[in-house]
Amino acid sequence: MEQQGQSSDSAHSYVIEMAQLANELTGKLDALNSSQAPVGGGRSSCPIIVAKVRDLTRNVDCGEYDPDHVAIGPYNYPRPQSRSPHLAMEHDKLTSLGKLLSAARAMRPDMTVNVYINELRCLEESVRNCYANTFADMTSEQFVRMLLLDGCYILSRLVGFQAQPADDASVTVEVGVPSANRAEALAVVRDVFYLAENQIPFFVLEKIGELTALDGKDRVIKKITEYALDLMRRQKYKEAAPAMVPPQPTVPGNLLHLLHMHLKPAPPSAPPAATVNDSDQVRRWRSATEYSFAGVKFKGRAMNEKGMRSILDVKLNRGGSTLEVPRLDIDSETWRLLRNLMELEQRNREAVGSHVTAYCVFMSQVACTTKDVELLSKRDVIVHGHGNNDEVAKCFADLCKGIQFDPDDPECNYLRETCWILEKRSRSSSRRWMAWLRRKYFRNPWLVIGLLAAVVGLACEVVQAVYSVLS
User: Fold this and answer.
1) What is the reported pTM?
2) CB under 8 Å to 4, separation ≥6 — which residues?
3) Running DSSP on this structure, what letter comes out for residue 438?
């Protein structure tokens, strides 16, 4: 009887434990489902997730991901003053709030800061869903305060809401015109546009603009998209064409995503020279000097030349002998922008794709040595102002360290077919031999003339010998 009692007690405990486990899992499932449900007045979770840069990537060059002038968003809250003495202080952001509030009161005299706070509080849950981190250490008050000040700072710099007539230039900050000095303006643009962690959702900017002016939401979209387009055009990353084209305009998730929307490879204009099967593996690109040894020529193209719309439009001619690559103008911000665009893709592949990563992998492997950079510079594929080619080659070699990318996945690698065609050409012994002959002898016209004379002389001797035998 005692054993039966012990057995009954253990069975009862087991049932209780299983019931507790079921309740725990049910609660977590309910929480998961509620976090995926539409929030914020019908707005679904943001399709673009802002995530912390992983240590494996950040350790290559942490300076490429940290703000120098202005810290934006919850990843940089509270703002460590020790990071940079030039980070925008609380006073700068409060001043921006004052400018927008004055502009709002010019149209709505009863507008107060409390109206901004209440509207942003309604968006708080939607905004939190746009980040990979929950930021449980930030209270609702801190989070909304951060959104308001950061959003006002960005809008005062990029849009320029005004509280007085348009002829009063002292109040307006026009698009493309630095509000203080050029160096400071460039630093602000670099921090708010280029950095993957230094972002707040675009719909926050829209909401603040909507509260500030009657046409505020439309003005935010128009002015900031114009600013981004001009930025990409001046950096020679893309030709002058809008990123959001009707009838299906795509509203960006944040400012970095807006830049990313400009970089999409053009569809192929000619049928492929070869068909790549799913079983074929491309593995990796060869270096530019290896391709040159196999007879592949590189040719740099400027924007708008032969249909080049962005730096991603790498094209192989029909014969597979010339690779046309958009000219890449390298400056101090090139590596920062490319790295952060890749980080955006690493966390949002389904939403934005991986074409920038595919392009960076291509360039990092083709231009990974000093001789490769020298060759590509001569072919006008790369233009740089660095002291020497060694520095550029090292930057290319380090560009994709820590990046996850499958070159054999056609959905990830839009250049997979091009890579495979060049690989087949590089493995061809006859093509390599002909390329060696051209490099060795055909570059010198006197050697070519001498070779032709030798061939003609040999042919004459053969003919003479044949006639002698016949006679």
Assistant:
1) 0.80
2) none
3) I
